[in-house]
Amino acid sequence: MTTVTVDATPKPRDERRALQVTRLRLRTVALYAVSVLVGIGVWQLLAMSYGPSLVASPSATLSAAGELASDGTLTNSIIASGRRILIGWGLGLLVGVPAGLFIGQIRLVRQLLEPYIEFFRFIPPIAFVTLAVVWLGIGESSKVVLIFYTAVFIVILNTSAGVMAVSESKLRAAASLGASRRQILRGVVLPSTVPYIITGARLAMGNSFLTIVSAEIVAAQVGLGALIWTSRNYGRIDWVFVGIITLGILGFVFDRVLRIVASRVLRRYGVKL
Questions:
Q1: Residue 200 and residue 92: Cα distance in Å, rounded?
Q2: Domain ranges (residues) in the chain
Q3: Largest CB tally within 10 Å, which of 14, 36, 134, 250?
Q4: From CA 184, how far away is CA 178, in angstroms rounded?
Q5: Nearest-angstrom CA–CA distance, 45 and 99
Q6: How many helices (H) and strands (E) does the chain have?
Q7: Which parts of the chain span the membrane according to its record (predicted)?
Q8: At what angle do helices 73-105 and 58-70 cross, to 10 degrees?
Q9: What's domain 58-267's superfamily in CATH?
Q10: DSSP state of 223
Q11: Within a 13 Å sphere around the CA of 226, how many CA atoms are in the beta-carbon half?
């Protein structure tokens, strides 16, 4: 009589988890691909309906991108805009995070500065474009300062909100155990505030893209905003579409990189993005 041996040993948990992650990633990529194809299809229909004088077709835009890339115009524009955004946004984080922690922890400081923060955060950066050019010229400083202005208040508000959301019971428990003010900040306040900081950083990044276009249209010779405005002056709708789509792709890439970094930081604190 033949004995059939059945291996009832379940797959290791790590293998099952890896398989689930792979399937999830493939599903995400497939959904992205379908979404992009549908978007291109709608774009092509609009181009056919309104004509090339109003809507450049995907093929015409791709050809224009090759034209602009061949002489370095597109590459130089991407580098210029990306550099300005990263510098201004980075400075906004460097100033906004410590300021938000400080404002969130000390009530007196918060009450003194809140009127100014609330006042300036409702004034869009576009309103300061002319003053920035007059005060700082048409060089890099004016664009960087405008992006810094865009980012810093968003980061301050999100960081201070995170500090104020920390449970009082956690603070009292840490103090009762003899923790110093610095230890409470590092061990209790900062871990609880990190998700708020990251949210503020992502919002600030998105708003920085809004600012860079306006700033470069007014006071730049090189950049994606300047490219869009110059294309409009030459009546090249296909170049305009190249500039707009490049801005979207650049923003998507920046946000994805930020999300990857943020997820690794948050994982240390047991938080999923």
A1: 10
A2: 58-267
A3: 250
A4: 10
A5: 49
A6: 11, 0
A7: 26-46, 85-104, 116-138, 144-166, 209-231, 237-258
A8: 100
A9: MetI-like (1.10.3720.10)
A10: S
A11: 17
- At 91, which amino acid appears? L
* Tens digit of each residue's pLDDT, the chain (273 residues): 455 554 555 556 777 777 777 888 888 888 989 999 999 999 999 999 998 889 999 999 999 999 999 999 999 999 999 999 999 999 999 999 999 999 988 889 888 998 998 899 889 888 898 898 889 888 889 999 999 999 999 999 999 998 888 877 777 777 777 777 777 777 777 788 888 999 999 999 999 999 999 899 887 889 999 999 999 888 899 999 999 999 999 999 999 999 988 888 777 766 665
Sign of the Cα pseudo-torsion (216, 221, 223, 225, in order) = positive
Q: Considering Cα of 235, then 237, then 242, then 245, what sign does the dihedral take? A: positive
Cβ density class 248-270: b for 16+ within 10 Å, e for less: eebbeebeeebeeebeeebeeee
